[in-house]
Amino acid sequence: MAFPNSLLLAVLFSFLSLLPSAQSRLSTEYYNKTCPQFHNVMQRIIADKQLGAPTTAAAILRVFFHDCFVNGCDASLLIASNAFNKSELAADINLSLAGDAFDLIVRAKTALELECPGVVSCSDILAVSARDLVVMVGGPFYKVRLGRKDSKESDPSIVESNIPKTTTPMSEILALFAAKGFSAEEMVALTGAHTIGFSHCKEFANRIFNFSKTSEYDPAYNPVFAQGLRKLCANYTKSPEMSAFNDVFTPGKFDNMYFKNLQRGLGLLLSDQAMLTDNTTRPFVDLFAANQTAFFDTFARSMEKLSLYKIKRNREGEVRRRCDQFNTLQT
Fold first, then answer.
1. Higher pLDDT residue, 240 or 123?
2. 0.85 cut: is pTM over it?
3. What positions are marked as the site Transition state stabilizer (predicted)?
4. What is the largest CA-CA distance in the chain?
């Protein structure tokens, strides 16, 4: 029996509506027509900010990791708490995130809203910022496909279980990364982002003060390094802003010195040092310490993979007018 033409058209349009539109596909050229100056604007804002505040690269990387690891790369971390709701930023582990990262996002979003209003998502801004800053401080280039949408929710209650702490056992860190689809090699490479930036004294104070009945500091530390940290952090309880570089030799350069430092007893955080003693992760620490190209290749591949983790597309999200606020007030 022949179908009426009207019925055939209805079935056809219903089928087509289920297909992903071109706009829903991520692409490095996503903004070429809708915001052709996107990359130029981003590069200008990023260069100005990094030159003025050299810790911005490390700050953005940390914000990017903390955002992506909690329900995907969707800029949910950028939402500010309000009188009605607490956001992910209210979680204890996010309280120490550096303001320079958020300042960069605000600057970039403001400039892009003037250039092409309502087009570029905050999650794309964050992903490109992380990549461009890695490159700017000497790290590897990798592709960032664009077209993410921004999350419509930000729940602080799910943060703690998704972000490893400096005291989290290596077995649990590996399990957390594995649950998100990342291998031990990829985990070690991503942790290599600690080659830039700093950590507050409170994050490693338990390793340098009253470590045990037989030692004031963790014997895994190089003794000279430990004594230097003890002097640096002597008044950290009164001055919580006191901090130390993650990489004491090349703190502002993205390289493989971080892994060499681990081998010398210069790993600042307990979770850093644990990678050297764990049988699963030690081979990758040794590989990356000996071969910077291997580290860069794995880091680039892992960052590209991370940037696509549980992204939001189409109606799953929105393009925020401001990165710290949902377009519709959440009550």
1. 123
2. yes
3. 62
4. 90
Q: Is 70 labelled a binding residue? A: yes
- The CA distance from 167 to 182, in Å, is 20
247 is in an annotated binding site: yes
For residue 4, what pLDDT band results from cuts at 50, 70 and 90? low
The verdict on whether residue 74 carries a ligand-binding annotation is yes
Res. 6 pLDDT band, cuts 50 70 90: low
Structure confidence at residue 86 (pLDDT): 93
SS3 of residue 243 by DSSP = strand
250 is in an annotated binding site: yes
Task: Kindly report the backbone phi and psi dihedral angles of residue 282, in degrees, each rounded to the nearest multiple of 5, phi listed first.
Answer: -55, -45
Calpha distance 49→60 (Å, rounded):
11
Alpha helix (H) residue ranges in the chain: 5-18, 38-52, 56-68, 99-115, 122-136, 170-179, 184-191, 205-208, 223-232, 257-263, 270-277, 282-290, 292-306
Residue pair 180/306 in contact (Cβ under 8 Å)? The answer is no
Q: Count of alpha carbons within 13 Å of 34, Cβ hemisphere only?
A: 15
Average pLDDT, the chain: 92
Confidence grade of residue 329 (pLDDT, cut at 50, 70, 90): confident
